[in-house]
# Entry
Amino acid sequence: MKFQFDSLADFMHMDGHGVFVWTAYALVYGILIYLTVSPLIQKSNFLKQQKKWQQLQKDSSNP
Amino acid sequence: MNWQWFHRLGSPRWFYEKTNAWLPWLMVCAWGLLLVGGIWGLGFAPEDAKQRNSFRILYIHAPVAYISMSCYYIMAISGAVGLIWKMKLPFMVMKACAPIGLGLTIVVLATGSIWGKPTWGTWWEWDARLTSYLILSFLYLGAIALQQAFQNRDTADKASALLALVGTVNIPIIYKSVDWWYTLHQPATLKIVGKSSIDPSMLYPLFVMIVGFYVFFTLVLILHTRTEILRRESRTQWVKELVLGKGEGKRS
# Structure
């Protein structure tokens, strides 16, 4: 198994196909990161919101 | 027959606690395989004789296409299980599938379009494979819209499950469209029955990417389902304790 390109510039350019290949890969890995991170952010927001709500309930029951 | 395991599988709390330990492993495996497979496909797999370097899009396009269709089946099966056994967890899995499936389907359409320009000379063609895939994205959109359209959660789940079940007819159409109609899209490269028309030096990175994407899909489905569990079970004691920080996913 060997690296198929002579230089980094060659690797980026890919005989004129680089713009298509790199755009496609950037899009896919971007969506993969979003799909991984978004539920973690939603969970963190949910926990914060619920904590605040529980605190409000506690305060209103013990004025 | 002992059905205890089946009922336990339907418990949101059991699922939330059980999957907590799996997440770091799934995260490492999924991202490890996707990085190795991606670098292998981009830089070390040989160039295709006809499509030249644009063929490297195959390593992301085909695996995402497989999982976006598998995701639809999981959404429909979860919906059916929820409707038949009236269990809560399958409906949560079904709801989690819809945005994941929509994201993946958009990626398949976009990468296919980007691949189409240097290979076919066009970004889009209204042929059978592309059109049936566009319908798949509308089915995911419909499932999300139905979830938002009803105030009553049970009604939303049932309507969404019915749409998912009806839409399953589109999956074999997508799969066989390249055989049934004349299309620009190439026929299947990997065959379950018969010899695959791809050289092993190109096949191995593809195999790594397919496994990586399936592990990744398992990971994100669990992550999205866990968030949905928290939302729906917010009034239960175990979620209240979790909010107060009395242990992440451990029985008190």
Observations:
- The CA atoms of residues 78 and 90 of chain B lie 5 Å apart.
- The radius of gyration of chain B is 20 Å.
